[in-house]
Amino acid sequence: MLVGIVSQMALALGLMLVGRWGRRRAAALVPASLSGTDRDRRIVAMRRGALACKALGVLFAFASIPAIGWR
After folding, report:
1. Burial letters for 4-39: b for 16+ Cβ neighbours within 10 Å, e otherwise?
2. What angle do CA 11, 16, 20 make, to 5 degrees?
3. Residue 71: its pLDDT value, please?
4. How far is CA 37 from each of CA 30, 40, 69, 70, rounded to the nearest angstrom?
5. Residue 54: how many CA atoms within 13 Å on its side-chain side?
């Protein structure tokens, strides 16, 4: 049971960190060789995906709280 809680919290932390990193570095990760509108569209899509990672990380973190209480 404890291993499951720890692994869920580690997954939550990892997702939140990847989301934070992705939102900050989205513009640097998209190739500069793309046209302006296509590049902007990809940056927005990457930031949206990073936001989804952060949201899932928060969801996993909150889902592990009852498991800690039931232990």
Report:
1. eeeebbeebeebbebbeebbeebeeebeeeeeeeee
2. 150
3. 59
4. 12, 5, 49, 51
5. 12
* Segment 10-40, tens digit of pLDDT: 999 999 999 999 999 999 999 999 999 999 9
| Distance in angstroms (rounded) separating the CA atoms of residues 37 and 40 | 5
- In Å, what is the CA distance from 13 to each residue of 33, 37, 42? 33, 33, 25
Query: Residue range 44-48: average pLDDT?
Result: 97
- Locate the domains of the chain by residue range: 2-70
Give just the sign of the alpha carbon dihedral 11, 12, 16, 19.
Answer: positive
Tokens of 6: 């720890």
